[in-house]
Write a structure and sequence with these properties.
Helix content is about 40%, strand content about 10%. The protein has about 350 residues and is an alpha/beta fold. It has one domain: Nicotinate-nucleotide-dimethylbenzimidazole phosphoribosyltransferase (CobT), large domain (Rossmann fold). Strand 6, helix 8 (about 235-250) and strand 7 form a beta-alpha-beta unit. The longest helix is centred in the C-terminal third of the chain and has 17 residues, at about 235-250. The radius of gyration is 18 Å and the shape is globular.
């Protein structure tokens, strides 16, 4: 399957936007991720939630950024919302260490997921079921839904979980780093997979390898897709959500309408030499409409934004699908870049 390069909307009309904000304690493993401020990485989803909701952060002095100064892609999502507002913008609290302020917060009563290297696990079946029930109940305000994520170290848990389910994963997953910390990532995943044994069930394996965002979103899309169109806004993490949903639906006989499920990512992911999202999607039992949006920071003058085009940041907080949404509403790359830059002073 090829990813379709698209600079117009996948779907027409106004979209709801949901941010699946979640913490896995895997993110506290040193040098595994750069998705946030060193020592405060578990705060990244909280800060992202605040910024896309208000254009400000309250739980720390400044927005989340990498040690090299690359700002969170939450800037992109916020800029889109200001230029062409979503029909609804809400935050799913899927286990945060600190609740975001000034947000339309949907609290699902979850604690952060344990590190996948811990001996303990989480109740993956319960989290999946919460997502499935929420998908049945969600009241769509616009014409379709965009769901993004903010889960530091989520590509590591994503790779571990689909490996546990028997999918091919080696060399297919992206990273927050330009140069992937492969040895740390590999050791983390190996330690996680070593906890598994052959008589474990599907959800028991996922409880040792996945995170709340993956399981909740997998459940959500299986039930919500019966009622309306939705776009998974992200890269290899969202591809893993699809693969998990695919496996669970197949094993448990869960009906869903895959014609309503789409994926949209950035060209930074689609063209990433260290990952291969197409090879992940190709392992699905159904044919998925997957899109990539053409956008770069060639019009930017701020040096931190230029680092995106160099591969220092690639996706997150729904960036790719939000850019496609902006383009479909007549926002140009130049105008979007200008709005994003305005947050950086």
């Amino acid at each position: 399957m090829q990813i379709i390069y698209e600079n117009s909307s996948i779907l027409s009309g106004k979209a709801d936007f949901l941010l699946a904000a979640s913490v896995t304690h895997t993110c506290e493993i040193p040098q595994l991720t750069q998705a946030g401020i060193p020592g405060k990485i578990p705060l990244t989803p909280t800060l992202d939630a605040e910024f896309i909701s208000t254009g400000e952060v309250f739980s720390l002095g400044d927005i989340a950024e990498t040690p090299k100064g690359v700002p969170t892609p939450a800037l992109i999502t916020r800029a889109v919302h200001e230029l062409s507002p979503f029909a609804s913008l809400q935050i799913l609290d899927l286990g945060l260490i600190q609740k975001p302020q000034q947000c339309r917060l949907i609290d699902l009563g979850m604690k952060p997921s344990p590190s996948i290297t811990d001996t303990s696990s989480f109740n993956a079946k319960s989290v999946f079921q919460k997502g499935f029930e929420f998908g049945k109940e969600y009241s769509l305000q616009g014409d379709y839904l965009i769901i993004g994520e903010s889960t530091p170290s989520g590509t590591t848990t994503a790779q571990a979980s689909i490996s546990a389910l028997g999918y091919k994963s080696e060399g297919l997953f992206a990273s927050s780093f330009k140069d992937v910390p492969s040895s740390i990532k590999e050791k983390t995943i190996k330690k996680s997979l070593c906890k598994l044994h052959s008589n474990m069930g599907l959800f028991e394996k996922l409880g040792h390898t996945a995170d709340n965002m993956l399981l909740f979103t997998a459940g959500f899309i299986l039930s919500a897709s019966r009622r309306f169109n939705l776009v998974l806004a992200g890269g290899t993490q969202m591809a893993a959500v699809l693969l998990i949903a695919n496996k669970i639906a197949s094993r448990k006989g869960i009906h869903h309408d895959h014609r309503h499920i789409h994926l949209c990512t950035t060209q930074w992911i689609a063209e990433d030499k260290n990952s291969n999202i197409t090879s992940l999607i190709d392992q699905l039992d159904f044919r998925l409409k997957a899109y990539c949006v053409h956008f770069s920071f060639e019009d930017a003058t701020h040096p931190a934004l230029k680092l995106y085009d160099e591969g220092e940041a690639k996706e997150g907080v729904g960036a790719g699908a939000c850019i496609a949404y902006a383009f479909s509403h007549g926002i140009s790359q130049k105008d979007l870049t200008s709005k994003i830059q305005s947050y950086l002073g």
